[in-house]
Every structure is written in structure tokens, then in C-alpha cells.
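To: structure subgroup
Subject: Chain for Friday's discussion

All,

I'm putting the inputs and outputs inline so they're searchable in the archive.
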Amino acid sequence: MNVNPVVSEIVSGALRSLEEEVEDLLARIWRSPGLRDSREFSVTLSDRFGRALTGRSLGASPVPVMAAFPPEEMRPGDVFLHNDPYLSPLGFGDTAELCLTRPLFDAERLLAFLQVRARHDDLGGMRPGGAAGGASEVYHEGLLVPPVRIARGERLAGDVWTLLVRNSRLPETLGDDVEAQLAALRVGAARLGELTGRCGAENLTACFADLLRECEVAFEDLISRLPAEGSWEVETAVETDGFGGPHPLRLALRREGRRAVVDLDGAGPQARGPINCPLEGEGRTFLTRMIAPLMLHLAEEPDRFAAGALNDGAGRAIEVRLPGPGTLLTPRFPAPTGFCALTMGRLVSAFGEALFEASGGRTPAGFDNLRAWSLWGKDQEGGYLLFRESLGAGTGAGPEADGVSAVPPFGGTGGMSIEAVETRYPLRIESMGLATDSGGAGRRRGGLGIYREYRLLLEGEAASAADGGGGGEGPFGGSGGGPGAPYRIRLLREGKAPEDLPPIGAATAFSAEDILRVETPGGGGWGPPAERPPEEVLRDVLRGFVSPGSAREVFLVALRGEPAWEVDEKETRRLRGGGG
């Protein structure tokens, strides 16, 4: 330790508080409902070397900015902007995700970087919102911005500003929201200045090093709990890129001393469609941030680690090895990347499955929470209208407990309230709830996904960014448990059969009064379903989590006395072969 551990803990809490204060400020001043109500943004504080000091999984990285602008060329009050997915993945991979980076100083000494990543409504491209099925090169997805200086000494660079808003279908909204990012960065800079004044620059930078080292040591301890020998391999696929598929992926997990190696060799060739996921350079760091929280399940007290010790120090204990150039994970520019979140989701799921096997089933079963859908049309004044939403899903069950239902997407984004949707958009939510039978069956049941039915009060087009993993199944079940239900989006038209929207592809036209039903994945189950106690299955049926048919056919529990169900003990013993 470089400083007193009590001081280090105080600084750790102050850094988290700084990020949360900036996020709370942004949540109040965004103009776009997608940013304000779905919280499709994140705030990340990094040290002067670009290493994130807290566990923001969807944060970006200042390293591309550092490569383009050496520290000696940075000054207090400067702000840099970029969105190029080939330099550093930004959240979900849309070009409409703009990252603003502000270097933070003590006098003239560089101390840290503060970043605000925001998924704006539109920055050009084939379709409103940027990422689009049918894109075959990154230029189709919107304006690409390498690291540029958008503010110098608190003074806005008007030419960069003009270029940005000119390339948006919603220029006023974009302009106001970029101003919000700049304002939030000023607040964050002031808070770090106050912290520096209390602790001193030397103490503060020493605390940064301690926090990173603490996380590294913690993860080395977690990794040491995995078997020293063996390699756990998972083969999966992204179902389609909008042109064809499936597109194979392979992940191998093994332990080498006190380090975990994640080997991604075996990924298929780069895709024509927008599922390419550039992981070279800072992409490795981004993937590490996504998978590191899963390893906390190896700890005896995972909540203690999640509360304070998770940061980029984990990257020192986890090595990501990539395949050669020209693959889905190492695409050659200008391959499209707008739906790279789907590929990232498959990698995270595959890592979870490999970790499950390596730990002997001590970690939860499958969980898949990187799915989104959108619609667009014209409002009554003829202006563009874009609605985009990510909804929560069920987590996988573990050996000790059922999965949790309706967990928000990674980063806590998505899931606008019904009031916000119906007030700000020409939509009416007819119904919503937990999706019956979506949780994977097992001794421990997977958490349930959710469903929403939207009455569309306009004409337009709808599309989804989803994936069934190449086989149409949802998140994996473990130790004999069943998989969760997959993502599904359907268009319901009066007098016509329901129409399943393609997971990725050309947009589907809809008319006013059509209904769009979205169902999110459930988590995987743990253990054989026939070992679930009948009284727990009965409780699931009474709550609407499991249908009476599934209770009998999957869990082998017979019920009687609809609607006040009760367990038919004799028939249940027969179904379970005398057990139960």
C-alpha cells in the first residue's frame, strides 16, 4: 500500500460519489428521452494512464485520445470527442455514441481523465439512430469522428460543433445534449479539484495505484480458486448478420498461475453485416470489464468486491488473446460494427458458461441482457421521431437460489417507465409483465424475462438488434437445468397472423394501431427440473411464473383444482418415478 488504507477507502468512496453525482446531474438535464429516461450513458473516471478506477462496464477509454494528443498538448479546460469503434468500443457500438473526454489537472500536472459516454438519438447513417440492419460498411452507420478537440480552455470549438449537428436528423436535440455532456464534465472537474485540495495530488495518485493493485490482487485470489489444470471451451455463434449466418465464435478459459487466460482463437471470418466487434487494442480492456463481474461469483462475499474493488486492475489478472486479422473479433476497416453488442453478448455468455464448467457449477447459469429494438417515423410536424429501448431480462439460477427476474441491461440502462413512453411518444403500452415460462427449468429456476405490448399510434418502421445464438435457444442451463427462453419480437396486425420480426435485417413497416410485442430472455436453470420441490413449483404456478402445463411436462409436478391449484401428490410421485 502506498497510503493509509483508511485514506484509500475514503478516496474510493469519493470517486464513486463523483461519478454518481455527474450521472445524476445528466439524468436531470438531458433533452433526449432515450438519455434521460433510459439512462443510455455512463461516466468513467480514469487515472492519467487511462485505467478506469471504478467498475463501469460500459465506459469507454481515454487511450485513443492520449494517442492522438500527448499529455504535453493538453491543457486545463480542454475536452476531446470521439466515437470511432475501431479505436475503442463505446458501449453498444453505435456511431451515435459520442464520448467526451476531459483531462483533469492539479495546476499544470495531469492527474486523471473524466469521460461521459452517451448514446445520442442520431448522428446520420442509413436509418435514424445509426446502427442498422443491412449496413455493409461502417460508413453506412453514421459520421465517424476520430479524437478531436471540441473545447480548448473551456471555449467550444464551433467548427466541430457545426459539423456534428449538421450530420444529425435531430440537430437541436443533439446540440443540447452535447452541451449537457460538456457541463457535466465541468462539474466533475470541480469535484476532483475539491478532492485534490483535501488529499493532495501525491496522496491522490498514490490512492489510484492502490485501488488498481487491490483489484488485481483480489482477482488473482479469485482465479486461484479455479483448477490449475484443464481448459474449458465453449463454441457458440451469432445467429445472423442480416445477410447470412450463423457466424461461429469460440472461447477457451484456462488458468495460468494466478492469471486467467481467455483465448478467442477460432472466431469466424468478419461478417458482411454489422455484427463485427473490433477487440484489438482497447477492445480487450472493454471485454475484460464485461466479464470481470462474472468472476465475483467465485468469491465467498461477492457483494464486498462489487461495492469497492472492481476496476481496471482486473485486466492485469485476465489476459484476452485474440485471433489473427480478418475475423469477427478482428475485422478489417471499414467492416460495419453497429450491432457489435450482439457479438459481445455471445462472448460474455460463452465466458459465463466456461466459468460455470471450470468452477464445477458454483457460478450462475446463463444470462443474456444485450438486446434492443427501435422504431422510427415522422411526427405530426414532419420531423423525425425515434424510439429505442432495451428491456431487462432474467438472470441465471445458481446452486443456492433461483435467478432474479427483470434485471436491467448491462450498465443499468433501458426500460423507460410507462408514463414516460406514453407521454413523450405516439405509443400506448397495452400490457406488460413477467413472461410466463421464460425462466429456464431446474432445481433452481432461472429468472424471468419480461414482455411489453406497444400499441403503435403512427406509421413507420421497426427493427430489432437481437440474436438467438445460432440455435434459437436462450441462455444456457447448467448441471441438468434447462435454457431460458430466447428473445422474441412480434408484430400483431388485426386480422392477420402474428409476424416475427427478423433478429437483424431490413426494417419492417407497420401501420397505426398495430401492436408490437417484445419478450426478453429468461435466465438458465440450475439442476434437474424434477428435483424442484413440488411446493415451489406450485408457488411458481400461482404467481404466474410457470404454466400448469410446464409444471406437469417439465417439472413433473401434477396439479389439480384450477384455479386454486394444489399439488396432486399421488400423481406427482408417479410422474417422478416414485420420487419427489
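Points worth raising on Friday:
The two ends are 55 Å apart (CA to CA).
The chain has a mean pLDDT of 90.

D.
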